[in-house]
Amino acid sequence: MTLSRRDFLAAVAAVPLVGRRDAHAAGSRPRVAVVGAGAFGGWTALQLHHLGAKVVLVDSWGPGNARSSSGGKTRVIRAIYGPDRIYVEMVKRAFELWEQIAAATGVTLYVETGALWMHRADDAYVRSSLPILRDLGFAVDPLTIAEAARRYPQIDFGGVTSVWFERKAGALLSRRACIAVRDAFEKAGGRYRTAHVKPGPIANGAMSALRLDDGSKIEADVFVFACGPWLGQLFPDVVGSRIRPTRQEVFYFGTPPRSDRYQAGHLPIWIDFGKHIVYGIPGVDGRWLKVADDTRGELFDPTTGSRTPTKEGMARARQFLAERFPELAKAPLLAGEVCQYENSPDGNLIIDRHPHAKNVWLLGGGSGHGFKLAPTVGEMAAQAIVSGKEVPKLFHLDRLRDVFKPATQFEMKKKG
Ligand SMILES: Cc1cc2nc3c(=O)[nH]c(=O)nc-3n(C[C@H](O)[C@H](O)[C@H](O)COP(=O)(O)OP(=O)(O)OC[C@H]3O[C@@H](n4cnc5c(N)ncnc54)[C@H](O)[C@@H]3O)c2cc1C
Questions:
Q1: Is residue 354 within 6 Å of ligand 1 at its C-beta?
Q2: CATH T-level assignment (fold) for domain 5-68+175-243+346-411
Q3: Using CA of residue 184, residue 216, residue 208, residue 224, what is the dihedral sign?
Q4: Would the CB of 364 count as within 6 Å of ligand 1?
Q5: Which of 67, 101, 366, 412 is deepest in the core (most CB within 10 A)?
Q6: What values do phi and psi take at 173, rounded to 5?
Q7: Tens of pLDDT along 273-291?
Q8: What distance in angstroms lies between residue 68's CA and the mean position of ligand 1's atoms?
Q9: Atom number, ligand 1, closest to the C-alpha of residue 62
């Protein structure tokens, strides 16, 4: 579908935008600049292009770079989302879009493993999701501890009181996926640039142009900032500390030689709800087992923060491994990564217009669970920008006016 720029601009906003008259006169396609080629920005740029916009995508260091929240090897995609139907619906749509792009690019972006949910106490998070999952066609099987132990002899189920197996879940190859989305965007005719961007001045309710580090400018009708953990720094007045980047460590342990027991197809993704939520991914792109603690770490600067994992973090991961995967108690550490969550105060996403600039959109707040949702986030944002389709209120910025205590997405669900 190719939208005329005139139709596009008419749909974008009720208020006049700076430079609109010139844009109308040009009579060409509407211009959108998307800043940030992580999961959110890449997908938004691609979807905007599909909807007929002329899009430039800009990133300081490139799609899925090592500083970004979308960097690293893998991310979990699962549909269990407590009582929040909206996220289950978004995951359902995201699965379709991830599958479409994998088919279109011929790149493996998803490995299905299923997800094993282990609880040492309350399993309300899973149970509250079951009716929604049934309704939307996601199968989840309850397993007795004995059944689970028979199926997965690699795991010691000590302390576990309930186990659920989610069939359609798996690992997305995160960095590879960001690059594939950028490549698909360029192949379709979109323009990608590596450059560091400063938001342009806002006057009369609109932003006029982006300023780049080489002194040049990007003019556009609409500006989208999908800057993950940097969003608060770029917009201190309207986002600021509503995005808190926290330091998160991830470890990859080597599996025994000639053994498939820890590879996808033999071991699912697992999520262990104990005092901390610890989760892991079987080998999908190498002979390792990924282990990560979902507990929010210290505040972290995504540009300058040290990416060397701590001895303490490594020791905690090893202790967990010894307890849950006894055969791997002495497994060698193959790699460690430091990434950052970009937490919103309530763990929910941000997809909204800038409150003082009608032609600026702010996307972020993935809060440790956003990657899987990125195709749907991109679709929602693009449809909102192009056709004015309403974004769910849950993702509006003004919900955060009165929320002060930061919470994780899992904690919010428990409260709900
Ligand atoms: C360790 C870890 C594990 C996670 N696990 C999961 C999981 O299992 N499942 C899941 O669904 N989600 C998970 N997440 C969350 C998910 O990865 C993030 O929510 C998601 O990747 C955020 O994407 P984004 O595009 O918003 O941000 P980013 O990926 O950070 O992208 C922002 C981009 O903006 C660019 N940028 C910033 N400022 C500028 C500027 N001024 N000019 C130009 N470019 C700029 C950056 O270079 C960057 O590429 C995890 C996150 C981490 C850190």
A1: no
A2: FAD/NAD(P)-binding domain (3.50.50)
A3: positive
A4: yes
A5: 366
A6: -85, 95
A7: 999 999 999 999 888 999 9
A8: 5
A9: 49
